[in-house]
Protein backbone atom coordinates (compact mmCIF):
# COMPACT_ATOMS: atom_id res chain seq x y z
CA UNK A 1 0.00 0.00 0.00
CA UNK A 2 2.55 2.62 -1.12
CA UNK A 3 1.86 6.32 -0.90
CA UNK A 4 1.66 6.50 -4.71
CA UNK A 5 -1.56 4.46 -4.55
CA UNK A 6 -3.15 6.15 -1.52
CA UNK A 7 -2.96 9.88 -0.89
CA UNK A 8 -2.42 11.19 2.60
CA UNK A 9 -5.86 12.83 2.51
CA UNK A 10 -7.47 9.46 1.76
CA UNK A 11 -5.28 7.74 4.35
CA UNK A 12 -6.90 9.81 7.12
CA UNK A 13 -10.48 8.44 6.83
CA UNK A 14 -9.09 4.98 6.07
CA UNK A 15 -7.09 5.05 9.33
CA UNK A 16 -10.33 5.67 11.24
CA UNK A 17 -12.37 3.06 9.36
CA UNK A 18 -9.79 0.28 9.24
CA UNK A 19 -9.75 -0.56 12.99
CA UNK A 20 -13.56 -0.75 12.92
CA UNK A 21 -13.36 -3.23 10.05
CA UNK A 22 -10.77 -5.12 12.08
CA UNK A 23 -13.16 -5.08 15.04
CA UNK A 24 -15.82 -6.77 12.91
CA UNK A 25 -13.31 -9.38 11.71
CA UNK A 26 -12.27 -10.11 15.31
CA UNK A 27 -15.92 -10.66 16.26
CA UNK A 28 -16.57 -12.96 13.30
CA UNK A 29 -13.47 -15.03 14.15
CA UNK A 30 -14.42 -15.47 17.80
CA UNK A 31 -14.23 -19.28 17.62
CA UNK A 32 -10.84 -19.26 15.90
CA UNK A 33 -8.31 -17.62 18.25
CA UNK A 34 -5.33 -17.84 15.90
CA UNK A 35 -7.25 -16.23 13.04
CA UNK A 36 -8.75 -13.68 15.45
CA UNK A 37 -5.32 -12.57 16.61
CA UNK A 38 -4.08 -12.60 13.01
CA UNK A 39 -6.88 -10.19 12.12
CA UNK A 40 -5.73 -7.87 14.90
CA UNK A 41 -2.11 -7.91 13.74
CA UNK A 42 -2.93 -7.52 10.04
CA UNK A 43 -5.21 -4.58 10.83
CA UNK A 44 -2.46 -3.04 12.94
CA UNK A 45 0.15 -3.47 10.20
CA UNK A 46 -2.04 -1.81 7.55
CA UNK A 47 -2.90 1.00 9.98
CA UNK A 48 0.79 1.62 10.58
CA UNK A 49 1.36 1.94 6.83
CA UNK A 50 -1.44 4.52 6.63
CA UNK A 51 0.06 6.44 9.55
CA UNK A 52 3.45 6.40 7.85
CA UNK A 53 1.91 7.79 4.65
CA UNK A 54 0.39 10.66 6.62
CA UNK A 55 3.57 11.18 8.66
CA UNK A 56 5.68 11.34 5.51
CA UNK A 57 3.32 13.76 3.78
CA UNK A 58 3.32 16.14 6.75
CA UNK A 59 7.10 15.90 6.93
CA UNK A 60 7.20 16.94 3.28
CA UNK A 61 5.32 20.14 4.05
CA UNK A 62 1.78 18.98 3.28
CA UNK A 63 -1.20 19.29 5.60
CA UNK A 64 -3.57 16.59 4.32
CA UNK A 65 -7.18 17.11 5.31
CA UNK A 66 -10.56 15.47 4.95
CA UNK A 67 -14.05 16.72 5.79
CA UNK A 68 -16.41 13.90 6.74
CA UNK A 69 -19.59 15.96 6.92
CA UNK A 70 -20.95 19.15 8.47
CA UNK A 71 -23.24 18.63 11.46
CA UNK A 72 -24.47 22.22 11.40
CA UNK A 73 -23.19 25.26 9.61
CA UNK A 74 -19.66 26.01 10.82
CA UNK A 75 -19.27 22.76 12.80
CA UNK A 76 -17.88 20.05 10.54
CA UNK A 77 -16.46 16.71 11.56
CA UNK A 78 -13.16 17.34 9.84
CA UNK A 79 -9.58 16.13 9.95
CA UNK A 80 -6.27 17.79 9.22
CA UNK A 81 -2.84 16.33 9.89
CA UNK A 82 -0.12 18.60 11.27
CA UNK A 83 3.23 17.58 12.83
CA UNK A 84 2.01 16.94 16.38
CA UNK A 85 -1.01 14.94 15.22
CA UNK A 86 0.99 12.99 12.65
CA UNK A 87 3.50 12.05 15.36
CA UNK A 88 0.74 10.98 17.75
CA UNK A 89 -0.96 8.93 15.02
CA UNK A 90 2.30 7.16 14.23
CA UNK A 91 3.01 6.44 17.90
CA UNK A 92 -0.51 5.12 18.54
CA UNK A 93 -0.61 2.90 15.46
CA UNK A 94 2.92 1.57 15.91
CA UNK A 95 2.55 0.78 19.59
CA UNK A 96 -0.85 -0.82 19.00
CA UNK A 97 0.94 -3.58 17.10
CA UNK A 98 3.47 -4.00 19.91
CA UNK A 99 0.71 -3.99 22.50
CA UNK A 100 -1.32 -6.53 20.50
CA UNK A 101 1.60 -8.95 20.31
CA UNK A 102 2.14 -8.54 24.03
CA UNK A 103 -1.58 -8.95 24.71
CA UNK A 104 -1.65 -12.28 22.89
CA UNK A 105 1.18 -13.61 25.07
CA UNK A 106 -0.31 -12.17 28.26
CA UNK A 107 -3.93 -13.19 27.72
CA UNK A 108 -3.02 -16.72 26.70
CA UNK A 109 -0.27 -17.13 29.25
CA UNK A 110 -2.57 -15.96 32.00
CA UNK A 111 -5.61 -17.86 30.71
CA UNK A 112 -7.83 -14.78 30.52
CA UNK A 113 -11.51 -14.99 29.55
CA UNK A 114 -13.46 -12.77 27.12
CA UNK A 115 -10.49 -12.32 24.81
CA UNK A 116 -12.63 -11.52 21.76
CA UNK A 117 -14.33 -8.63 23.56
CA UNK A 118 -10.92 -7.52 24.76
CA UNK A 119 -9.41 -7.25 21.27
CA UNK A 120 -12.61 -5.71 19.83
CA UNK A 121 -12.52 -2.93 22.42
CA UNK A 122 -8.87 -2.29 21.61
CA UNK A 123 -9.72 -1.88 17.91
CA UNK A 124 -12.52 0.64 18.55
CA UNK A 125 -10.28 2.57 20.95
CA UNK A 126 -7.44 2.86 18.45
CA UNK A 127 -9.90 4.18 15.85
CA UNK A 128 -10.93 6.85 18.35
CA UNK A 129 -7.30 7.66 19.09
CA UNK A 130 -6.63 8.21 15.39
CA UNK A 131 -9.66 10.52 15.29
CA UNK A 132 -8.20 12.56 18.13
CA UNK A 133 -4.79 12.66 16.42
CA UNK A 134 -6.09 14.04 13.14
CA UNK A 135 -8.97 16.22 14.42
CA UNK A 136 -9.06 19.56 12.61
CA UNK A 137 -11.16 21.30 15.24
CA UNK A 138 -12.28 21.13 18.86
CA UNK A 139 -15.71 19.75 17.91
CA UNK A 140 -14.21 16.72 16.14
CA UNK A 141 -11.66 16.20 18.89
CA UNK A 142 -14.41 16.18 21.54
CA UNK A 143 -16.43 13.51 19.72
CA UNK A 144 -13.52 11.10 19.37
CA UNK A 145 -12.27 11.95 22.86
CA UNK A 146 -15.60 10.69 24.24
CA UNK A 147 -15.59 7.59 22.03
CA UNK A 148 -12.15 6.79 23.40
CA UNK A 149 -13.47 6.97 26.96
CA UNK A 150 -16.47 4.74 26.25
CA UNK A 151 -14.52 2.17 24.22
CA UNK A 152 -11.89 1.70 26.92
CA UNK A 153 -14.43 1.27 29.73
CA UNK A 154 -14.94 -2.47 28.92
CA UNK A 155 -11.16 -2.89 29.04
CA UNK A 156 -10.90 -1.33 32.49
CA UNK A 157 -13.76 -3.51 33.81
CA UNK A 158 -12.52 -6.63 32.01
CA UNK A 159 -12.42 -8.89 35.08
CA UNK A 160 -16.01 -8.08 36.00
CA UNK A 161 -15.52 -8.42 39.77
CA UNK A 162 -16.45 -5.78 42.34
CA UNK A 163 -12.96 -4.28 42.31
CA UNK A 164 -13.07 -3.91 38.53
CA UNK A 165 -16.57 -2.43 38.59
CA UNK A 166 -15.56 0.11 41.22
CA UNK A 167 -12.46 1.09 39.26
CA UNK A 168 -14.57 1.34 36.12
CA UNK A 169 -17.12 3.60 37.80
CA UNK A 170 -14.39 5.98 38.92
CA UNK A 171 -12.75 5.82 35.49
CA UNK A 172 -15.94 6.59 33.59
CA UNK A 173 -17.29 9.00 36.20
CA UNK A 174 -14.24 11.25 36.37
CA UNK A 175 -13.57 11.31 32.64
CA UNK A 176 -17.19 11.91 31.62
CA UNK A 177 -17.79 14.47 34.38
CA UNK A 178 -14.73 16.52 33.42
CA UNK A 179 -15.35 16.34 29.68
CA UNK A 180 -19.08 17.13 29.79
CA UNK A 181 -18.94 19.50 32.77
CA UNK A 182 -15.79 21.43 31.82
CA UNK A 183 -14.42 20.62 28.37
CA UNK A 184 -17.70 20.92 26.48
CA UNK A 185 -18.56 24.32 28.03
CA UNK A 186 -15.02 25.48 27.18
CA UNK A 187 -15.53 24.52 23.53
CA UNK A 188 -18.94 26.22 23.39
CA UNK A 189 -17.48 29.33 25.04
CA UNK A 190 -14.60 29.36 22.57
CA UNK A 191 -17.04 29.14 19.65
CA UNK A 192 -19.15 31.95 21.11
CA UNK A 193 -16.10 34.22 21.37
CA UNK A 194 -14.32 33.39 18.12
CA UNK A 195 -17.01 31.93 15.85
CA UNK A 196 -14.85 28.89 15.14
CA UNK A 197 -13.43 25.77 16.76
CA UNK A 198 -10.73 25.23 14.13
CA UNK A 199 -7.16 24.56 15.19
CA UNK A 200 -5.21 27.48 13.71
CA UNK A 201 -1.50 28.23 13.62
CA UNK A 202 -0.75 30.93 16.17
CA UNK A 203 -4.10 30.34 17.90
CA UNK A 204 -7.53 31.86 17.43
CA UNK A 205 -7.67 33.90 20.64
CA UNK A 206 -5.22 36.64 19.69
CA UNK A 207 -7.66 38.13 17.18
CA UNK A 208 -10.29 38.30 19.92
CA UNK A 209 -8.10 39.51 22.79
CA UNK A 210 -10.55 42.22 23.85
CA UNK A 211 -13.47 39.79 23.95
CA UNK A 212 -11.47 37.26 25.94
CA UNK A 213 -9.94 39.80 28.28
CA UNK A 214 -9.56 38.73 31.91
CA UNK A 215 -11.52 35.50 31.40
CA UNK A 216 -8.62 33.90 29.52
CA UNK A 217 -7.41 32.19 32.70
CA UNK A 218 -10.88 30.85 33.49
CA UNK A 219 -11.31 29.47 29.98
CA UNK A 220 -7.85 27.88 30.07
CA UNK A 221 -8.72 26.30 33.40
CA UNK A 222 -11.82 24.70 31.89
CA UNK A 223 -9.62 23.11 29.25
CA UNK A 224 -6.83 22.12 31.67
CA UNK A 225 -9.16 20.21 34.00
CA UNK A 226 -11.81 19.38 31.40
CA UNK A 227 -9.26 17.30 29.50
CA UNK A 228 -9.27 14.81 32.35
CA UNK A 229 -7.19 12.29 30.42
CA UNK A 230 -4.19 14.56 31.02
CA UNK A 231 -4.58 13.58 34.72
CA UNK A 232 -3.66 17.00 36.07
CA UNK A 233 -4.26 16.90 39.82
CA UNK A 234 -6.91 16.81 41.23
CA UNK A 235 -8.56 15.34 38.08
CA UNK A 236 -6.33 12.25 38.28
CA UNK A 237 -8.08 9.56 40.42
CA UNK A 238 -9.36 7.70 37.36
CA UNK A 239 -5.82 6.74 36.38
CA UNK A 240 -4.66 4.77 39.46
CA UNK A 241 -8.14 3.25 39.78
CA UNK A 242 -7.95 1.99 36.19
CA UNK A 243 -5.06 -0.27 37.22
CA UNK A 244 -7.63 -2.96 38.08
CA UNK A 245 -7.50 -3.83 34.37
CA UNK A 246 -5.17 -6.47 32.86
CA UNK A 247 -1.63 -5.19 32.31
CA UNK A 248 -1.94 -4.90 28.50
CA UNK A 249 -4.79 -2.46 29.14
CA UNK A 250 -2.62 -0.51 31.57
CA UNK A 251 0.10 -0.27 28.92
CA UNK A 252 -2.50 0.87 26.37
CA UNK A 253 -3.94 3.50 28.71
CA UNK A 254 -0.54 4.86 29.67
CA UNK A 255 1.41 4.66 26.43
CA UNK A 256 -0.71 4.14 23.35
CA UNK A 257 -3.95 6.06 23.51
CA UNK A 258 -5.77 7.41 26.55
CA UNK A 259 -3.33 9.53 28.53
CA UNK A 260 -1.48 10.46 25.35
CA UNK A 261 -4.77 11.70 23.90
CA UNK A 262 -5.11 13.84 27.02
CA UNK A 263 -1.75 15.59 26.97
CA UNK A 264 -1.84 15.77 23.17
CA UNK A 265 -5.13 17.67 23.48
CA UNK A 266 -3.68 20.00 26.12
CA UNK A 267 -0.78 20.84 23.82
CA UNK A 268 -3.06 21.32 20.79
CA UNK A 269 -5.30 23.70 22.74
CA UNK A 270 -2.32 25.69 24.02
CA UNK A 271 -0.69 26.04 20.60
CA UNK A 272 -3.62 26.14 18.17
CA UNK A 273 -6.46 27.63 20.22
CA UNK A 274 -4.82 30.08 22.63
CA UNK A 275 -1.44 30.46 20.96
CA UNK A 276 1.90 30.61 22.78
CA UNK A 277 2.22 34.39 22.37
CA UNK A 278 -1.28 35.00 23.73
CA UNK A 279 -0.64 32.83 26.79
CA UNK A 280 2.67 34.53 27.46
CA UNK A 281 1.34 38.06 27.00
CA UNK A 282 -1.74 37.54 29.19
CA UNK A 283 -0.02 35.40 31.84
CA UNK A 284 -3.12 33.18 31.83
CA UNK A 285 -1.08 29.99 31.91
CA UNK A 286 1.08 30.81 34.94
CA UNK A 287 -1.29 29.40 37.63
CA UNK A 288 -1.61 26.15 35.69
CA UNK A 289 2.13 25.98 35.23
CA UNK A 290 2.44 25.80 39.01
CA UNK A 291 -0.40 23.29 39.30
CA UNK A 292 1.45 21.09 36.80
CA UNK A 293 4.70 21.53 38.74
CA UNK A 294 2.91 20.58 41.95
CA UNK A 295 1.40 17.52 40.27
CA UNK A 296 4.86 16.42 39.17
CA UNK A 297 6.23 16.46 42.70
CA UNK A 298 3.17 15.27 44.60
CA UNK A 299 2.53 12.30 42.30
CA UNK A 300 6.19 11.31 42.53
CA UNK A 301 6.04 11.45 46.33
CA UNK A 302 2.95 9.20 46.32
CA UNK A 303 4.61 6.78 43.89
CA UNK A 304 7.53 6.33 46.28
CA UNK A 305 5.20 4.86 48.92
CA UNK A 306 3.34 2.43 46.66
CA UNK A 307 4.37 -1.21 47.05
CA UNK A 308 2.09 -2.43 44.27
CA UNK A 309 4.14 -2.10 41.10
CA UNK A 310 1.28 -1.04 38.81
CA UNK A 311 0.10 1.54 41.35
CA UNK A 312 3.62 2.94 41.55
CA UNK A 313 3.80 3.17 37.78
CA UNK A 314 0.34 4.76 37.64
CA UNK A 315 1.34 7.64 39.91
CA UNK A 316 4.57 7.91 37.98
CA UNK A 317 2.44 8.47 34.88
CA UNK A 318 0.46 11.22 36.62
CA UNK A 319 3.78 12.92 37.29
CA UNK A 320 5.20 12.38 33.81
CA UNK A 321 2.04 13.58 32.05
CA UNK A 322 2.30 16.85 33.92
CA UNK A 323 5.62 17.43 32.14
CA UNK A 324 3.63 17.93 28.92
CA UNK A 325 1.14 20.24 30.60
CA UNK A 326 4.03 22.13 32.19
CA UNK A 327 5.67 22.57 28.79
CA UNK A 328 2.47 23.98 27.33
CA UNK A 329 1.90 26.33 30.27
CA UNK A 330 5.45 27.69 30.18
CA UNK A 331 4.27 29.37 26.95
CA UNK A 332 7.72 29.32 25.38
CA UNK A 333 8.87 27.61 22.21
CA UNK A 334 11.28 25.32 24.05
CA UNK A 335 8.65 24.44 26.63
CA UNK A 336 6.24 23.38 23.87
CA UNK A 337 8.99 21.39 22.17
CA UNK A 338 9.83 19.66 25.45
CA UNK A 339 6.18 18.76 25.98
CA UNK A 340 5.82 17.42 22.44
CA UNK A 341 8.95 15.27 22.68
CA UNK A 342 7.81 14.00 26.07
CA UNK A 343 4.76 12.44 24.38
CA UNK A 344 7.01 10.22 22.25
CA UNK A 345 9.63 9.46 24.90
CA UNK A 346 7.14 8.68 27.64
CA UNK A 347 5.16 6.37 25.35
CA UNK A 348 8.17 4.12 24.79
CA UNK A 349 9.51 4.26 28.35
CA UNK A 350 6.26 3.76 30.24
CA UNK A 351 4.99 1.05 27.91
CA UNK A 352 8.22 -0.83 28.57
CA UNK A 353 7.70 -0.63 32.32
CA UNK A 354 4.08 -1.79 32.25
CA UNK A 355 4.80 -4.68 29.93
CA UNK A 356 7.62 -5.77 32.23
CA UNK A 357 5.21 -5.62 35.18
CA UNK A 358 2.83 -7.88 33.27
CA UNK A 359 5.59 -10.31 32.33
CA UNK A 360 6.57 -10.61 35.98
CA UNK A 361 2.98 -11.35 36.95
CA UNK A 362 2.46 -13.91 34.19
CA UNK A 363 5.62 -15.84 35.01
CA UNK A 364 5.75 -15.51 38.80
CA UNK A 365 2.41 -14.07 40.00
CA UNK A 366 4.19 -11.23 41.78
CA UNK A 367 2.80 -7.71 41.79
CA UNK A 368 4.42 -6.12 44.86
CA UNK A 369 7.77 -4.38 44.69
CA UNK A 370 8.73 -5.94 48.02
CA UNK A 371 8.33 -9.41 46.45
CA UNK A 372 10.82 -8.81 43.65
CA UNK A 373 14.06 -9.17 45.58
CA UNK A 374 16.34 -11.49 43.64
CA UNK A 375 13.85 -11.98 40.82
CA UNK A 376 16.16 -10.36 38.28
CA UNK A 377 18.46 -13.37 38.52
CA UNK A 378 15.85 -15.59 36.87
CA UNK A 379 14.25 -12.85 34.71
CA UNK A 380 17.28 -10.89 33.42
CA UNK A 381 15.68 -9.93 30.11
CA UNK A 382 12.54 -8.57 31.75
CA UNK A 383 14.37 -6.61 34.43
CA UNK A 384 17.01 -5.48 31.93
CA UNK A 385 14.24 -3.95 29.82
CA UNK A 386 12.71 -2.46 32.98
CA UNK A 387 16.05 -0.84 33.81
CA UNK A 388 16.27 0.80 30.36
CA UNK A 389 12.66 1.98 30.53
CA UNK A 390 13.29 3.45 33.98
CA UNK A 391 16.40 5.23 32.70
CA UNK A 392 14.31 6.89 30.00
CA UNK A 393 11.55 7.95 32.40
CA UNK A 394 14.15 9.38 34.77
CA UNK A 395 15.72 11.28 31.88
CA UNK A 396 19.21 9.82 31.89
CA UNK A 397 21.28 9.65 28.66
CA UNK A 398 21.49 7.83 26.37
CA UNK A 399 17.72 7.30 26.63
CA UNK A 400 15.02 9.30 24.85
CA UNK A 401 13.54 10.75 28.06
CA UNK A 402 16.57 12.96 28.60
CA UNK A 403 15.70 15.31 25.72
CA UNK A 404 12.25 16.42 26.92
CA UNK A 405 13.66 17.42 30.29
CA UNK A 406 16.48 19.29 28.57
CA UNK A 407 14.05 21.31 26.46
CA UNK A 408 11.69 21.86 29.38
CA UNK A 409 14.57 23.33 31.37
CA UNK A 410 15.44 25.59 28.43
CA UNK A 411 11.80 26.63 28.26
CA UNK A 412 11.74 27.39 31.97
CA UNK A 413 14.91 29.45 31.62
CA UNK A 414 13.40 31.38 28.69
CA UNK A 415 10.33 32.11 30.81
CA UNK A 416 12.47 33.22 33.74
CA UNK A 417 11.03 30.43 35.90
CA UNK A 418 14.15 29.11 37.60
CA UNK A 419 12.06 27.42 40.27
CA UNK A 420 10.58 25.18 37.56
CA UNK A 421 14.09 23.98 36.76
CA UNK A 422 14.46 23.02 40.42
CA UNK A 423 11.15 21.12 40.23
CA UNK A 424 12.41 19.14 37.23
CA UNK A 425 15.67 18.30 39.01
CA UNK A 426 13.91 17.18 42.20
CA UNK A 427 11.49 15.13 40.12
CA UNK A 428 14.39 13.30 38.46
CA UNK A 429 15.86 12.45 41.85
CA UNK A 430 12.50 11.08 43.03
CA UNK A 431 12.24 9.06 39.80
CA UNK A 432 15.59 7.48 40.58
CA UNK A 433 14.43 6.49 44.05
CA UNK A 434 11.12 4.86 43.14
CA UNK A 435 12.08 3.34 39.78
CA UNK A 436 15.74 2.30 39.87
CA UNK A 437 15.31 0.70 43.28
CA UNK A 438 13.22 -2.01 41.60
CA UNK A 439 15.85 -3.49 39.23
CA UNK A 440 18.56 -2.91 41.83
CA UNK A 441 16.84 -5.10 44.41
CA UNK A 442 15.82 -7.58 41.71
CA UNK A 443 19.42 -8.10 40.59
CA UNK A 444 21.46 -7.51 43.74
CA UNK A 445 19.35 -8.52 46.74
CA UNK A 446 18.64 -11.99 48.04
CA UNK A 447 15.06 -13.31 47.82
CA UNK A 448 12.82 -12.35 50.73
CA UNK A 449 13.35 -14.36 53.89
CA UNK A 450 9.66 -15.28 54.03
CA UNK A 451 10.35 -17.94 51.43
CA UNK A 452 8.80 -16.03 48.54
CA UNK A 453 11.42 -17.24 46.10
CA UNK A 454 10.77 -16.99 42.37
CA UNK A 455 8.26 -19.64 41.38
CA UNK A 456 6.52 -20.34 38.10
CA UNK A 457 2.82 -19.54 37.75
CA UNK A 458 0.87 -22.50 36.42
CA UNK A 459 3.50 -23.24 33.81
CA UNK A 460 3.02 -19.87 32.16
CA UNK A 461 6.70 -19.36 31.60
CA UNK A 462 9.62 -20.58 29.55
CA UNK A 463 12.77 -21.95 31.15
CA UNK A 464 16.29 -21.67 29.81
CA UNK A 465 18.48 -23.41 32.33
CA UNK A 466 18.21 -21.44 35.54
CA UNK A 467 16.16 -18.69 33.86
CA UNK A 468 12.40 -18.55 34.31
CA UNK A 469 11.06 -15.88 31.98
CA UNK A 470 7.54 -15.16 30.75
CA UNK A 471 6.53 -16.44 27.29
CA UNK A 472 8.45 -14.94 24.40
CA UNK A 473 5.45 -12.80 23.35
CA UNK A 474 5.65 -11.15 26.77
CA UNK A 475 9.41 -10.61 26.59
CA UNK A 476 10.01 -9.43 23.04
CA UNK A 477 7.68 -6.36 23.14
CA UNK A 478 9.29 -4.64 26.16
CA UNK A 479 12.74 -5.38 24.76
CA UNK A 480 11.59 -3.77 21.50
CA UNK A 481 10.21 -0.62 23.16
CA UNK A 482 13.26 -0.32 25.43
CA UNK A 483 15.47 -0.47 22.34
CA UNK A 484 13.22 2.15 20.74
CA UNK A 485 13.69 4.46 23.73
CA UNK A 486 17.45 4.05 23.32
CA UNK A 487 17.45 4.69 19.57
CA UNK A 488 15.14 7.71 19.84
CA UNK A 489 17.83 9.44 21.89
CA UNK A 490 19.99 9.59 18.74
CA UNK A 491 17.14 10.81 16.54
CA UNK A 492 16.24 13.83 18.63
CA UNK A 493 17.40 16.27 15.94
CA UNK A 494 15.18 14.86 13.15
CA UNK A 495 12.24 14.77 15.57
CA UNK A 496 12.93 18.36 16.62
CA UNK A 497 13.01 19.49 12.99
CA UNK A 498 9.80 17.59 12.25
CA UNK A 499 7.99 19.26 15.14
CA UNK A 500 9.50 22.71 14.56
CA UNK A 501 6.33 24.08 12.83
CA UNK A 502 4.73 23.92 16.28
CA UNK A 503 7.02 26.72 17.39
CA UNK A 504 7.10 28.65 14.13
CA UNK A 505 10.02 26.73 12.64
CA UNK A 506 12.47 28.02 15.26
From TrEMBL:
Compartments it resides in: Cell membrane; Membrane
Q: What positions does the domain NADH:quinone oxidoreductase/Mrp antiporter transmembrane occupy?
A: 135-429
UniProt-listed InterPro entries: CPA3_Na-H_Antiporter_D, ND/Mrp_TM
Chief subcellular location equals membrane
Q: How does it sit in the membrane?
A: Multi-pass membrane protein
UniProt KW keywords: Cell membrane, Membrane, Transmembrane, Transmembrane helix
What's the superkingdom here?
Answer: Bacteria
Cross-referenced Pfam families, in alphabetical order? Proton_antipo_M (PF00361)
**TM helices/strands, residue ranges:** 6-29, 41-60, 84-106, 118-136, 171-192, 212-232, 252-275, 287-305, 343-363, 375-396, 416-436, 472-492
Belongs to which family? Belongs to the CPA3 antiporters (TC 2.A.63) subunit D family.
**What is the name listed in the Swiss-Prot or TrEMBL entry for this protein?**
Proton-conducting transporter membrane subunit
Q: Which organism is it from?
A: Hyphococcus aureus
Amino acid sequence: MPSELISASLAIPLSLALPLIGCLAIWLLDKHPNLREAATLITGAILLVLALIIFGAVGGGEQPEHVLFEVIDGLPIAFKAEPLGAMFGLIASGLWIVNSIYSIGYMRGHGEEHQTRFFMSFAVAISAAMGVAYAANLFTLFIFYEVLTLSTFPLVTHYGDEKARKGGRIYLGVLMATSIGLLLPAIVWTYAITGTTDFTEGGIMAAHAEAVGPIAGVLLGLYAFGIGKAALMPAHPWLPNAMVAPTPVSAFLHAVAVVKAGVFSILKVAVYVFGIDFLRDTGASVPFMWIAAGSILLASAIAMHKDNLKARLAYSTVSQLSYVTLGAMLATSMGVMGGAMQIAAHALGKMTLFMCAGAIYVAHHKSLVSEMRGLGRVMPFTFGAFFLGAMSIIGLPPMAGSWPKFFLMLGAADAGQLAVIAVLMVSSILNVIYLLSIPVQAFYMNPAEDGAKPQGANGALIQWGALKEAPILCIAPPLFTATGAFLLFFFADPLYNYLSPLIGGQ
